[in-house]
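Support request, priority: normal
Reporter: lab tech (M.K.)
Component: structure prediction queue

Hi team, I submitted a job for Alcohol dehydrogenase from Lactuca saligna yesterday, and the status page still shows it as pending. I've pasted the exact input below so you can check whether something in the sequence is tripping the parser. The sequence length should be 386 residues. Please let me know if I need to resubmit or if it's stuck on your end.
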Amino acid sequence: MDGKSSSNTAGKPLRCRAAIARKAGEPLVIEEVIVAPPNPREVRIKIICTSLCHSDITLWKLKDPPAIFPRILGHEAVGVVESVGEGVHEVAEGDTVIPTFVSDCGECRDCLSEKSNLCTKFPFSISPWMRDETSRFTDINGETLYHFVYVSSFSEYTVVDIAHVTKIDPAIPANRACLLSCGVSTGVGAAWRTAKVEAGTTVAIFGLGAIGLAVAEGARLCGAKRIIGIDVNQDKCEIGKKFGVTDFVNSRNIGDKTVSQIITEMTDGGADYCFECVGLTSLVHEAYASTRKGWGKTVVVGLDDPSSMLTLSTFELLYSGKSLMGSFFGGLKPKTDINILGKRYMDKELQLDEFVTHEVEFEEINKAFDLLLEGKSLRCVIWMNK
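Reply from support: The job had stalled in the queue. We restarted it manually and it finished. Here are the results:
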């Protein structure tokens, strides 16, 4: 299909419901909105399920740029193509798709390389617009509603550039498939694609939230022999076992020692791979100090304040031989790697079910926010029209 659709709504504006963040930190408001038809290279998607990620919470709370209101948040989702714009060949009406905040144009040097998932043609930004710096959303009064990281899944319909759309197997349950568009994929990919964890090695994970547990799952799939989880919440000890965590360190109960001292003692010199999954510069330093000299890799997955700076001794960096690297979306290429993870789930290798702690209807979307803010959920799936 190339810009054509048998849908009665193709090429026309659609009225639907969306949960709008009108002010920082205030409950979302479900309102009727108008969603424009897709422009060339764009796809209009009917969202089936969306899930709540901490990045949504962060931008919802934030009062200063890149925060902007009114905005339709949401970026973990799965849906069905309602119609496509001119020049779209990859998907057709009725296809099941996952929208992703990471682009995959398939044409630039990075997308054509196995070494990078950082598309040059469509670089990531927390933009309030589509790629052409316009919006596809307005409220019933004609006011512009802003996008969120090119997805905006807290709407029954959304418009996404084809570079941000991956066609998937429709047999994957929607309330599991949506997890593959951000959090779980990021964590699993950090172990699998970024660090390339080897069988029989030792892994230490700082922070056992959804991302950290996904790193543990990725390390388990890679065959890591020992997976050490570090967290301040003792409950994460039992939860971590579901995802392959073999040892647990409560960083509040280690006396006068630092976490890095504990990890170094436990591993006879440091872990082969360390992952910082909280987003604290201080923990990046601890993770680096916990990594074995010579061949160890420290991977930063969590996001601290963008102005935060690391301070490393150049002598230590030179002498230790360790690697320090970042992992954006787990190093995954959306259009290929998401389907690999989907197949591994269907083959009962990858665990997704254990990440879903709650499911709510669209009208209860603010409950999902409360559950995550209270630390009661890993992932809350929101059904748009169950």
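Residues 58 and 67 are 9 Å apart (CA to CA). The two ends are 29 Å apart (CA to CA). Let us know if anything else looks off. Ticket resolved.
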